Every structure is written in structure tokens, then in C-alpha cells.
Amino acid sequence: MSTLLEQLIEAFRVLPGVGGKSAQRMAYHVLERERAGGQHLAQVLAEAVVRIGHCARCRDFSESEVCHVCASASRDVDQLCVVETPADRLAIEQATGYRGLYYVLQGRLSPLDGIGPRELGLDRLSARLAEGEVRELIIATNPTVEGEATAHYLAQLARQQGVTPSRLAYGVPLGGELEYVDRGTLSHSFGTRSEIRE
Amino acid sequence: MSTLLEQLIEAFRVLPGVGGKSAQRMAYHVLERERAGGQHLAQVLAEAVVRIGHCARCRDFSESEVCHVCASASRDVDQLCVVETPADRLAIEQATGYRGLYYVLQGRLSPLDGIGPRELGLDRLSARLAEGEVRELIIATNPTVEGEATAHYLAQLARQQGVTPSRLAYGVPLGGELEYVDRGTLSHSFGTRSEIRE
């Protein structure tokens, strides 16, 4: 029978990137200095895992049936940006001035893991594109092998419904130094160079 | 009014070493893949911050009035090891074969922060040494300026009560390379070298 302190340390290990040593540090820190904060975390966490579900429109996390972005009247309904995860959606929302809507796959096509179009809700996405409101499908899956395969599939889906598919630009990051950019990125960036116009 | 998800991300920041980005990753990770684990963490955490207090004998964390180490009949009562934090106590317990008892200061002398002998419970420690059971006070405070000052104070306290004070050995860590050891440690280690006997 383990003590409550041991149970707490073990429970912290459910968090990403938290091993035994960090979990121990977290438990001690909360007990030594942050009891009120710890109590608040426990309460919000307990509420969140029960109350936060998925938006019926975009599949992002949402407390309500439809999330506040999808429910907003001020977003452009003719642009739909497809991302793999809620974190990707948040990153785009924070970094860009994009005013369209999103669609969160909550994954990527990965047949070996049993993740096909149905698991990503692509049937619902297809139906939505068929409605005719969306004119551009901005595909923002990650530039990995699986992300690219997913992007290819999505582009086909869009064309079938008469929607223009587009893809983010990939290349050397701004502020990056060519010397330290990985080969694949540099090669891709070199191959897709564009003419400098006046 | 922030959403529950935003509140959850904010709440995770109470943990040590967790900034905005890690907090976000934790929230998404729990919601995406670890709802049961998150629920368990919330429950154990809520219970721990309320039920875990301090042992009346050694001041370490304990669910009961007296912790299981202090309550154990198989520990040597003539040795008392003083450490700064519960984490230090755990480290010694796990690494060594020490069978004596502990005293956890829950801090170190730091007059500027208003932490004096009373805040560290040194009056109770003194009274305990006066009982005459303890014969050796093993001082295992950290080798920092404040830890050294605390060690000095504790050694005096021990001598006043006729108890032998001792201090951990400090020097080059085993397996360490001289080249990479910091100057202070190397200098101390050089100055406190000992004769090699047959």
C-alpha cells in the first residue's frame, strides 16, 4: 500500500514529458508552496476532463455543442483551414490574422495504426464541402510523411467538391540560417524557389 | 471570461518549470489521450493538499501525526540526520543504507527572508537533542552559502547539548572528470585531500 504522497508522484507522471524526478519535484513543490494553486488545479482539471468535449462543427475542443469560433458571425465562412491538432489551430490563430473557420482532424491518416478517413471525420468534412459555402480548403497538416499523405487525400476531396485546395508554404524559416537548416527543407526550398519580381 | 480550457492551461502553470507552452501541451495531452489519468490526478491532488501535513517528530510530509520512519521501531534513535527538504531526505534514504532518523528543516537559515531558527523549528530540535537519546547529528544541508551557515548553527546547537555533529563529505563526485568539475569544488577537494594509507 503506497502513501498518498507516492500516489501523487505517480499520478503526475500522466503528464507529457514528466518522469519520476519531475513528478517528485511537482508533488513537493505543490505541498511546500502551492497548496491553494494545487487545489485549484485539481478542481479545474476534474471539471475539464468531464465538461470539455468536441465542437460538432470543427471537432476542436469545446465546452459547448458548437465552439465560439464556429458560432461567431464575424468569421469568413468561405475559407476552411484543416489542421491536425487543437494546438496547431491555436498556433495559427495566434500567429496569423486568419478570419476563416477551422477543421481539426484530431490526428492524421495512418493506416497502420488503424486511422483512416472515417476516424478523422472526413465523411463529415466532405459533406460540409458539398454544402457549397466553402470555396478554399487551406490544408495545414504537418510536413511529415503522414501529414503529406493526409494533405494529398484532402486536396482530392476538395477538388471532387469543386473547392480550391491550398497548402501552406514550406521552406527556410524566417530568421533561420541556411547553414543550420536541415537538408530536406533546404532542398525543398531550393526546388520551389520563385522568381523575384519588381 | 476565459474558457475552461484556458483556465486549465493557466492552472497547470502552478507546477514548477511549467511555462505557457508546456501548460498548453499538458492540457491538450490530458484531454486528447489521458482523461482517466487526468481525473485520477485531480482526485489524488485534491486529497493530498488537504490530507498531507507534517510529521510532529521530523517535520517531513506525513498523512499521519507521526510519519512511518519516525514511528518505526527498527531505526536507530542515536543518529539524527538534518536535511533542508523532504526531497533531500528521500534522496539520502534511497541512496544510502542509513538506518537512523531524520529532521527536515523545510528551509535553511536566511535572515533576509525572515527565516530564522524559529521558522526552521530549531527550538524543537534543540529540545530533542537535550533528551539525550541522539548521540550524532549528521548535518546534510546543501553546500551553499545559506546551507553552510545553517550547518554552522546546527553544529553549535549540537555541541551545546553534548551531541557530536558531523557533516557529509564534499569533493569531486564519483565518476566525475576533474576537467569538468567547477573551480570551487575542485579547490575545496584539493584543500581537504587526505593521506592514502595502506
From TrEMBL, chains A, B:
Q: Where are the transmembrane segments?
A: none
Q: Which residues form the Toprim domain?
A: 78-173
UniProt GO MF annotations: DNA binding; zinc ion binding
ZnF region ranges: C4-type = 55-70
| SMART domains from the UniProt entry | TOPRIM
Give the UniProt keywords, A-Z: DNA damage, DNA recombination, DNA repair, Metal-binding, Zinc, Zinc-finger
The keyword Amino-acid biosynthesis is annotated on this UniProt entry: no
Any one GO biological process: DNA recombination
Q: According to its UniProt record, which protein family does this protein belong to?
A: Belongs to the RecR family.
The record's HAMAP family line, in alphabetical order, gives: RecR
What the protein does? Answer: May play a role in DNA repair. It seems to be involved in an RecBC-independent recombinational process of DNA repair. It may act with RecF and RecO.
Instruction: Tell me the protein's name.
Output: Recombination protein RecR
Species assigned in the record: Cognatilysobacter lacus
Organism classification:
Bacteria, Pseudomonadati, Pseudomonadota, Gammaproteobacteria, Lysobacterales
